[in-house]
């Protein structure tokens, strides 16, 4: 039995058209929206451990770095998720994807300027809030934009541009922090202020972007939508795709409240998968590495500079391994990457846990030999690579491509909120969990990776090459989700016709 495997390229319907330079350029520009998220992930840890920064803004908690970190991520995460849920979904739906991207970039830009110029703690806090809001808007709209623009057969590759930008942002921020940590004064200002650079790239880019045909139709601009579709597909024969988009928008118009609609049984597969994917993505434990890499490597016996260099190595692995998914996601599919990545991460986590247990035992006393330190570094890099071509990009791709138009914006907000919330929870709990669980922490995350891999196997059907407005066929033919999809669901009626064509 082909458990969980839906219709893929074999039975999928392909519309007319080719991959135009225009659609590629458009998606590359839009993908830069991931830079601000990446820069933010990469910069915070470093800045909040800079002495000068702590003394200026938090004299009473100076040296209690953990508090500052908590304070920072709390505001970032809570706000971005809340704002993303309630405002960005509405903006993206009513005013278009481009509007949300522009708002996201601009708000983040103002946040970066306030932070870089901060004279008091309030400038810092307000700046920080704005960064969170900007990220909420960007992460909600960019993946949807990419999935709608892209032709189905390379949707995965174009969408993963977003994750590429995230990893480049993280890497750039780590390098910046390294440089500014050497500065005698104002290093933190430069680190925080330079966030304006990715914000500018994204905002200026967004100003030049066209909106997606789906969004144009959704907002009643049918003629513009047809022209845009012809332009991005490089052909005038766009009727089949255009008709599907119009049909989708008709269904979508009947929906007044997407949040209520998404709770209906016929949206159960999308709801469950969209809530679980970001939760699982964070339960891989990836951000333990992203936030604490230099500290982690220092603990593993690398000196100060060596610790940073090792963090740079894992940062580079993160960027380059993402490229692997760009070239394989539409060929081998999402499931293959999820399953392979899951197994690879699981093996690394168990091996790392065992290695640490063999050196430190339960008492926590011991020290890494050079060989064992290098082995640990290698295991961490292999783990990061696995994440970078599986749960990293797929955590943004899959939720953006499985929703019908009427719940797409709300669904993506849910993805962002759950993701931010668990990023925050793990960021905060990590240190105390490490104290209690010690090497067991790696088994803890390994256990979750096992669970999510089993979940993927049974419950996430293959979506490669399936046009985004035709996803119902994938659910309908799934062994478990099939029963939730009514026979007259959009996209099903003409599937038969097209499969025979
Ligand atoms: C995740 C982030 C993570 C990053 C690492 C993203 O997909 O959402 O939490 O830090 O990947 O590259």
Report what the structure shows.
The chain is mainly alpha-helical and 501 residues long. It has a single domain, classed as MFS general substrate transporter like domains (Growth Hormone, Chain: A, Up-down Bundle), CATH 1.20.1250. 75% of the residues lie in helices and 0% in strands. It is built from 23 helices and no strands. Helix 5 (97-116) runs antiparallel to helix 8 (187-193) and helix 14 packs parallel to helix 20. Beta-D-glucopyranose (BGC) binds at residues 41, 163, 166-167, 170, 281, 286-287, 290, 318, 392, 395, 419, 423.
What features would you highlight for this structure?
Growth Hormone, Chain: A; 23 helices; mainly alpha; globular; binds beta-D-glucopyranose; 501 residues
Number of helices: 23
Which CATH first-tier class would you pick? Mainly Alpha
CATH fold-level name: Growth Hormone, Chain: A
Structural class: mainly alpha
Task: Indicate the percent of residues in helices.
Answer: over 70%
Give the averaged pLDDT, no decimals.
Answer: 88
* Main sheet specs: none
Silhouette: globular
CATH second-level architecture: Up-down Bundle
Q: CATH superfamily, called what?
A: MFS general substrate transporter like domains
Low-pLDDT segments:
1-11, 495-501
What fraction of the residues are assigned to beta strands by DSSP? under 5%
How far is it from the N-terminal to the C-terminal residue, by CA? 26 Å
Q: Could you say which small molecules are bound to this protein?
A: beta-D-glucopyranose
Q: How many beta strands in the DSSP annotation? A: 0
């Amino acid at each position: 039995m082909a458990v969980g495997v839906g219709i893929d390229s074999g039975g999928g319907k392909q519309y007319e058209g080719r991959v135009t330079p225009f659609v590629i350029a458009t998606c590359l520009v839009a993908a830069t929206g991931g830079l601000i998220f990446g820069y933010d992930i990469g910069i915070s840890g470093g800045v909040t451990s800079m002495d000068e920064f702590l003394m200026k803004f938090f004299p009473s908690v100076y040296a209690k770095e953990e508090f500052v970190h908590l304070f920072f991520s709390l505001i970032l995460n809570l706000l971005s998720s809340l704002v993303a849920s309630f405002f960005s979904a509405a903006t993206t739906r009513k005013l278009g994807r481009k509007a949300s991207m522009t708002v996201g970039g601009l708000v983040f830009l103002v946040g970066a300027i306030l932070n870089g110029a901060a004279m008091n703690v309030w400038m810092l806090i307000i700046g920080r809030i704005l960064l969170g809001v900007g990220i909420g808007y960007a992460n909600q709209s960019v993946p949807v934009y990419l999935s709608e623009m892209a032709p189905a057969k390379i949707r995965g590759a174009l969408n993963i541009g977003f994750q590429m930008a995230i990893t480049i942002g993280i890497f750039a921020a780590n390098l910046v922090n390294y440089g500014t940590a050497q500065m005698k004064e104002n290093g933190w200002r430069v680190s925080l202020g330079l966030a304006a650079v990715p914000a500018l790239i994204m905002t200026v880019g967004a100003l030049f972007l066209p909106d997606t045909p789906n969004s144009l139709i959704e907002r009643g601009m049918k003629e513009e939508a047809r022209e845009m579709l012809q332009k991005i597909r490089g052909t005038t024969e766009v009727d089949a795709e255009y008709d599907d988009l119009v049909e989708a928008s008709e269904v979508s118009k009947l929906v007044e409240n997407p949040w209520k609609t998404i709770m209906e049984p016929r949206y159960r597969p999308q709801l469950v998968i969209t809530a679980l994917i970001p939760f699982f993505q964070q339960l891989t434990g990836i951000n333990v590495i992203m936030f604490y890499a230099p500290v982690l490597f220092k603990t593993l016996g690398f000196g100060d500079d060596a610790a940073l260099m090792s963090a740079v190595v894992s940062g580079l692995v993160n960027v380059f391994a993402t490229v692997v998914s760009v070239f394989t996601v539409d060929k081998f599919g999402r499931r293959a990457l999820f399953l392979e990545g899951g197994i690879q991460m699981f093996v690394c986590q168990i091996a790392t846990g065992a290695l640490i247990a063999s050196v430190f035992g339960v008492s926590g006393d011991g020290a890494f030999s050079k060989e064992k330190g290098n082995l640990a570094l290698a295991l961490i890099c292999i783990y990061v690579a696995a994440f970078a071509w599986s749960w990293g990009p797929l955590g943004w791709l899959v939720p953006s491509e499985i929703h019908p138009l009427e719940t797409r914006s709300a669904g993506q907000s849910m993805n962002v909120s759950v993701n931010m919330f668990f990023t925050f929870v793990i960021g905060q709990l990590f240190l105390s969990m490490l104290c209690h669980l010690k090497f067991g922490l790696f088994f803890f995350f390994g256990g979750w990776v096992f669970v999510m891999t089993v979940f993927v196997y049974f419950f996430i059907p293959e979506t490669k090459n399936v046009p985004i407005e035709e996803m119902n066929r994938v659910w309908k033919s799934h062994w478990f989700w099939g029963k939730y999809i009514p026979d007259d669901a959009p996209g099903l009626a003409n599937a038969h016709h097209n499969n025979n064509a």
